[in-house]
Amino acid sequence: GPDFGYMHKEPLFEATASLDSFGNVEVSPPVSVAGKEYPLGRILIGSSFPASAGRRMTRLVRDFLYAQRVQAPVELYSDWLAVGNVNEFVNFVPTSDKKRFRMLLASPAACYRLFREKQKEGQGEATMFKGKGTALDTKRMTINKVLSNDVLAQQNQYVQRCIDWNRDILKKELGLLEEDIIDLPALFKLDKQGKAVPYFPNTV
C-alpha cells in the first residue's frame, strides 16, 4: 500500500540467535511513566542477566530498536529460558476500565497454589501433561506427583525468582501497580543446560 515501507539489515560479524526472534520483541499498551507519555507503548526485549555473559540480542537489532525513541525499549531478563523470548512469560490483555489493559505474567507460584487447592478438593489423581510427548509422558503424571516432586519444585522456585526480577522491572518501567498484573499458573522444567522449558502453552 501507499503507506507501507520496510527496512532490511543483516549483521556482518555477529551470528543471530533465538533472542533475535520476533517473540523476543514485544510492545506494551500505551503507558504513562513518571509523567512521560508513551502513546504507542514501550518495546520489550529479552536479554541476559545484568553484568553476565549470557545471550543477548544482536547489536544491530538492539541499536535499531533503541534508535526508535518513541517506544523507548525496556530490557528484560529472558536468558534463563531455553528459547529466551519475552513472550514466554509476559503478555497483555485489553480491559474496559480506566487502565485499559492488564499484564499477564507466567507464575509457577500460582500454579502450585492451584494444584494444592485441587488436591484438597480431591483432584490429586487428575492426569497432567497428557500428550506432551516428553519424558513425563512415559508414565502417568498427576497433580499429586507434581506436588511431591522436590526437584521440580526447586526448579520452579528458581524460575519464579527470574520472573519476579522482571516483574519489578516491568512495574517500574511501565508504571504498573500489583493490581495491574494477573498471575497465570505455569510450570517449567530445566533442561540439561539449566535453561527453563515451559510445560504449559506459553503466554502467547
State the end-to-end CA separation.
Answer: 29 Å
Helix content: 25-40%
Strand tally, please?
A: 12
Number of domains: 2
**Assembly annotation:** single chain
Rg (C-alpha, Å): 19 Å
Strand content: 15-25%
Structural class: alpha+beta
The number of helical runs is 4
Largest sheet properties: 3 strands, mixed
Report the uncertain regions: none
Pfam families: PAD
Protein name: PADI2 deiminase
Domain Protein-arginine deiminase C-terminal: 1-204
GO molecular function, one term: histone arginine deiminase activity
Would you give an account of this structure?
This protein has helices at 59-67, 108-120, 143-147, 150-174, and strands at 25-27, 31-33, 36-38, 43-47, 74-77, 90-94, 101-107, 127-128, 141-142, 181-185, 188-190, 196-198. With 204 residues, it is α+β, with helices and mostly antiparallel strands. It has 2 domains: 8-88, no CATH class; 106-194, no CATH class. A 3-stranded mixed β-sheet has the order 1-4-5. A hairpin with a 6-residue loop joins strand 6 and strand 7 (101-107). The longest helix has 25 residues, at 150-174. The two termini are 29 Å apart. The model has no long low-confidence stretch (mean pLDDT 89).
